[in-house]
Each structure stands twice: as structure tokens, then as C-alpha cells.
Design brief:
The chain has about 140 residues and is mostly helical. It has helices at about 5-25, 25-35, 40-60, 65-85, 90-95; strands spanning about 115, 120. The protein is built from five helices and two strands.
């Protein structure tokens, strides 16, 4: 059995990790999990990678039971790892921080009757959403 502090940390990280897999997807979280479990044995690393895929499959079932079941499995996996690698305790926060959303790219075409100085617009400005009608020229 693990001590209370270790289980509290593992349980918190597990719940957040499962939520991140649900929102960000298994692909994005697989890299974070692999980085966190980098000190583990090859078998433990494979188990963690498989757990990401298993969690993603579990979360396709409707209802909170699937998320609770996945969080319980992750708590045990994380607790076992932390018991063997106490120095990884400071890195648990990396699992708990959700992956930031992908950034959006915006294109700006400066046309019109204003003067554009250093990125500031002086004069009138029109916002056109969608594709450029002239092919972006």
C-alpha cells in the first residue's frame, strides 16, 4: 500500500490526465505520458502507452463511470511509478497541465485608403472574412 501523500498526488494527476485525454485526445497526451514515464522500465513504459490508448477507448462509452474507472487505473499506475521514482514527484505537475489548444493562424492583407505605419492602422480599415477574391495576390 502507498502512503497518503503519494496516493493524493497520483489520484489528482490521474483525474486531470484522464480529462486531458478526453479533451485533447490520446495522440497529444501520449508524448506527455512518455516523457513522464521516461525513468520507468521498458515494460512500464509500454504499459503507460497502452493505458493512454485504453483510456481513449474507455472514454468513448457514455457516462461518468468510464472516466472514474480510467482515473482509478491511472492512479494505480502513477502511484506505482512514483513509489519507485520519488524524484519524479516534482514532475507530476507536467501531467496535470492540460495541453494548450492549437494556435490559430490569421492572415492580414493591408489594402485600402489608410496609412500603415509599424503595424498601426491610421485611417479607414475594412475587415473581410473568408477567402480573398483575387486569389491572395
Amino acid at each position: 500500500m502507498y502512503d497518503a501523500e503519494l496516493m493524493a498526488v497520483a489520484t489528482g494527476a490521474a483525474g486531470t490526465l484522464v480529462a486531458a485525454i478526453a479533451t485533447s485526445g490520446a495522440e497529444k497526451m501520449r508524448l506527455k505520458v512518455a516523457h513522464f514515464f521516461r525513468r520507468a522500465t521498458p515494460d512500464q513504459q509500454r504499459a503507460a502507452a497502452q493505458a493512454v490508448d485504453d483510456t481513449a477507448v474507455q472514454l468513448t462509452a457514455p457516462g461518468p463511470e468510464a472516466q472514474a474507472l480510467a482515473a482509478t487505473a491511472w492512479a494505480q499506475l502513477i502511484a506505482q511509478y512514483l513509489a519507485e521514482h520519488r524524484d519524479a514527484m516534482s514532475e507530476v505537475d507536467e501531467l496535470a497541465v492540460p495541453t494548450p489548444p492549437a494556435s490559430k493562424v490569421w492572415n492580414q492583407y493591408n489594402t485600402g485608403t489608410g496609412t500603415f505605419i509599424g503595424g498601426d492602422v491610421h485611417g479607414g480599415m475594412t475587415f473581410n472574412y473568408g477567402r480573398a477574391t483575387d486569389g491572395g495576390r
